[in-house]
Amino acid sequence: MNTPVPTLQDCELLDQHDPLRALRAQFELPPGVIYLDGNSLGAMPRSTAARVAQAITHEWGQDLIRSWNSAGWFTLPQRVGDKIARLIGAGEGEVVAADSTSINLYKVLSAALQMAAKDAPEKRTILSERSNFPTDLYIAEALCRQHGYTLELVQAEEIDAALRRGQVAVLMLTHVNYRSGTMHDMAALTALAHAQGALTVWDLAHSAGAVPVDLRGAAADFAVGCGYKYLNGGPGAPAFVWVHPRHTDRFWQPLAGWWGHAAPFAFTPDYRPAPGITRYQCGTQPILSLSALDCGLDTLLAAEPLGGMAALRRKSLALTGLFMRLVRTRLHGHGLSIVTPEDDALRGSQVSLARSEGAYAIVQALIARGVIGDFRAGDGATEADILRFGFTPLYLGYADVWHAVEQLREVMDSGQWREARFSQQHAVT
């Protein structure tokens, strides 16, 4: 017997009984907008403007340089890092918020290659997924050129076999794929990598704040991630870096800046790396941006009394599952295929739809109707273009999902996406 397709009234009832519903009030969301792009840039918390204004007008404007001590500026990367640690299965003092994801990846991948060169010099391959986020592949390619390694790119289903060949020094993966929303089994792949003598580097850009992560439980080696997606830290927010404590003090990271010095205010001409994760800092960190990221993290930690990441994950799966079901039933015949896994265990907090024609224009037509998703181009040969929708359970409801699919149906039924104005391409991040 087929289950009835959920109605708007069904979705409104789910919203009324949603235990996380009150968390939406933490955000500044423009009226009439359904925001399905938190996987690219999180919404702004209501507390952010006042917090950053305080840092500007009082801490900087009034207290001036004294705020390095009186406002705790110098230790802010560690304090923000401790909040991130609670979301990714890391311990206190194991995460630092600093720099960008690309820079942090360069640091940890360099450290991993130093370790591999010492412990397994015969292994000369960095293994990654062909559809990994490009900046990760660019960083890896540059380091391979610098250190004489080979970057091997495979499809997701080929990772196991590639690892078992025994030539891999480092497995570098993004936990949740940015295009498809497919989630890797971190614990299983880390265990297999270790069994083959390889280290693991995980990019959590589409995981942190979106899905439960247990770095310690998975025995991962290194992890990085960004602060401006599900962590709601604002455009260009500082990223973060984690190194398993068993590795932290083994090697220098290559960007040996003064904030990573054991005694930064001694101003000695020689470098002595700080103990622990603080050595993974480089130069002076962006205090105003860190203050904004601190507010973003508080919006997630506000869910802890309500069940924390486990509760957010349950709602995320319900939202993405509802979206996929409505797309299947209400958009049948429009050439949209769901590329995100239906299996809950394999799905992040986004849904990607593929279409061979007009994907960009469809997204632009939706944005004009107040439904903000985003577009990713295919490779022009084997991949269709992607319409990508992120589901942030902190501020999205079930009725939002129903209305988003209804707007998509109207765009497709009416052919509105064919209007010339929606095909004028501009930068998409």
Low-pLDDT stretches are none
| Strand order of the biggest β-sheet | 4-10-9-8-7-5-6
Distance between the termini: 43 Å
What value does the Rg take, in angstroms? 22 Å
> Structural class, judged by helices and strands?
alpha/beta
Shape: globular
Order of helices and strands: HEEEHHHEHEHEHEHEHEEHHEEHEEEH
Strand content: 5-15%
- Number of β-strand runs: 15
What's the pLDDT, averaged over the residues?
Answer: 96
Tally of contiguous helical segments: 13
Topology readout:
Layout: H1 8-16, E1 27-28, E2 34-35, E3 44-45, H2 46-60, H3 67-70, H4 76-88, E4 95-97, H5 101-119, E5 125-129, H6 134-147, E6 150-154, H7 159-164, E7 168-174, H8 186-195, E8 199-203, H9 215-218, E9 222-225, E10 240-243, H10 287-301, H11 308-330, E11 337-338, E12 350-355, H12 359-368, E13 371-372, E14 374-376, E15 385-390, H13 398-414
Parallel strand pairs: 2-13, 5-6, 5-7, 7-8, 8-9
Antiparallel strand pairs: 1-3, 4-10, 9-10, 11-12, 12-15, 14-15
Helix pairs in contact: 1-13, 2-10, 4-10, 5-6, 11-13
Walk me through this protein's architecture.
- By secondary structure, the protein is α/β, with parallel strands linked by helices.
- Helices cover 37% and strands 14% of the residues.
- It contains 13 helices and 15 strands.
- The protein has helices spanning 8-16, 46-60, 67-70, 76-88, 101-119, 134-147, 159-164, 186-195, 215-218, 287-301, 308-330, 359-368, 398-414, and strands at residues 27-28, 34-35, 44-45, 95-97, 125-129, 150-154, 168-174, 199-203, 222-225, 240-243, 337-338, 350-355, 371-372, 374-376, 385-390.
- Helix 4 (76-88) runs parallel beside helix 10 (287-301), helix 5 packs parallel to helix 6 and helix 11 (308-330) runs parallel beside helix 13.
- The protein is globular.
- The two termini are 43 Å apart.
